[in-house]
Amino acid sequence: MRGPVRLAHRRAATSAHLRPPGLRARHVPARRVERDADAQLVANRQAALIALGQHRSSDARFVRVSCYTRHLGTFVYSGLVLFLAYFVRGMAGFGSGLIAVPLLSLVSPVTAVVPLVVSLDYLGSASQGIKNLGRIAWKEQLALVPFMLVGVGLGLYVLEFISTAELARGLGAFVIVYAVYQVLPLPPLRGSRIFAITCGLLGGLVGTLFGSGGPFYVIYLNLRDLEKRTFRATFAFNFLIDGGIRLIAFVVLGLFRWETLVSTAGALPIVAAGLFLGGHVHTRFSQRTFVWLITVLLIGTGVGLLLKG
């Protein structure tokens, strides 16, 4: 006999001694007792499942709120980084990729950040390069292009075999090296067009991998001692060629996705505001102080990327 059935018969026998005289004991069939016990067991199980479901529902709500908060924090951080990067570009004419890519790579994969920044840089360079065609140093530009294309090809080849963690470490090391280089007390250097080989290769390679090949083009154009407005026009047009090739390659490789296009469209107002203010606001800092602030920022970012990688 099953446990609940035995218990029910025992209770019936015990209650027979307490009944008033003249009252008959009601006979409870064994099947009914067994059915009632099963029903109670099912009810208990249902109550336990309901309690568990409520607990899981509260956990799910907590997870959703945490995800929304984290995404909101990432969105605000990315907006501030982009504004700072293009504010600097508005002041100096370059440097947006060097600032934006490492800082954004702290919260997103390098392979997602680079196509976004390259597309934003391309849009920013289009107006400068097209409206200043008459100021472009075409001889310097034509000297860079062939080696720049080779560098882009090498960068695309390396992207197929390198992991995101290795990219982050490489970017961190590059940023630290460049940050130290730009504060070294080096005298103004001049060089021939033979340096277009090295600077073009490294600019195309590093620009494809990290979206920040501009420093090598800056080094070469400084070696050629260009006038300031000629320098800016040549650098902007150079990026139209370099960035355009990289964007096409990113699309072919599947790195430029629909999410990248949406992010680019959403970032345009922030980028426009940074460029406008950077081009019209005269900072109180001296050039040397400004360079040191950017250097400290880049070194801190580089260390963060090395630890992340």
SSE inventory with pairings:
Blueprint: H1 3-15, H2 30-92, H3 96-104, H4 110-131, H5 138-159, H6 164-181, H7 195-210, H8 214-223, H9 228-253, H10 258-280, H11 287-308
Structural commentary:
With 309 residues, this protein is mainly α. The chain has one domain. It is built from eleven helices and no strands. α3 packs parallel to α11. The radius of gyration is 34 Å and the shape is globular. The N terminus is likely disordered.
The total tally of domains equals 1
Number of helical runs?
11
Low-confidence stretches: 1-34, 57-68
Write down how many β-strands occur, each being a DSSP E stretch of 2 or more residues: 0
Beta-strand portion reads: under 5%
Radius of gyration: 34 Å
User: Major sheet, described briefly?
Assistant: none
Task: Briefly say what this structure is.
This protein is 79% helix and 0% strand.
List keywords for this structure.
309 residues; mainly alpha; 11 helices; globular; disordered N terminus
